[in-house]
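Hey Z.,

So I finally got round to the coenzyme A thing we talked about over coffee. Here's the setup:
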Amino acid sequence: MSGEPGNRGSSAADLGSPAPDTVVIRGTRCTLRAFRSDELDTLIAALHSVGEDPAGFAGPRETVGDEREELRRRIAASGRLHDGWLEFAIEADGRLVGDVQGRGGRRMLPPGVYELGIELYDPASRGKGIGSEAVTLITTHLFAKLGAGRVQATTDVTNVPMRAVLARLGFREEGVLRDFMPSRDDPAGARNDYVLAAVTAADWAGLRGATRP
Ligand SMILES: CC(C)(COP(=O)(O)OP(=O)(O)OC[C@H]1O[C@@H](n2cnc3c(N)ncnc32)[C@H](O)[C@@H]1OP(=O)(O)O)[C@@H](O)C(=O)NCCC(=O)NCCS
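And the result:
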């Protein structure tokens, strides 16, 4: 992976303000940017409200030894490629409203493949086109700046809004991942089926033009 400044390991210095080499991507409805260190408490409250794992995966919350430390690292690493992951805060109307990630790296996926994750914390922020724009902006960045060949996403088969976002943007559903995610609602161990959807670099260029977000 190349073309992204500041792909470095975390250190004590990383735990302060966003590094100057972080990327900012502006759209019309939202801006993707690094988290600010003063957003730690806001982020903790938001993730608890939606039940998201601080490590960045959806699903039931796991017991995390030091959640604040985990989230400090996440904040410090945001806004630039870090260990194969690219995470942004989503800002709309001057407020932090969610997060979006392109998750990759040698330990997770083949080179040039990223998996998206996105969460708008407050239901009041949803259904206004912010999610569609955030997915568009990060996907374009992954293809145009990080040389991605494929961007994929998985979502619960019952997640109508996310499936609608992906379909509208041109992601093609490729199949169902059976018993993929532990259910949030069933501590007895039920697992939910997820849809896998993806877009290739060629698809994206054809759909939107090579440079237009
Ligand atoms: C999924 C999510 C990121 C989508 O972002 P968003 O800003 O709400 O999405 P948009 O407003 O851009 O588009 C939502 C689409 O879903 C449709 N939609 C929303 N709720 C719906 C419902 N209950 N039934 C059918 N369609 C619905 C909207 O009509 C729209 O489709 P359209 O553009 O074709 O009309 C956001 O809703 C969210 O954060 N949800 C909770 C977390 C989550 O599910 N994350 C994804 C995990 S993989």
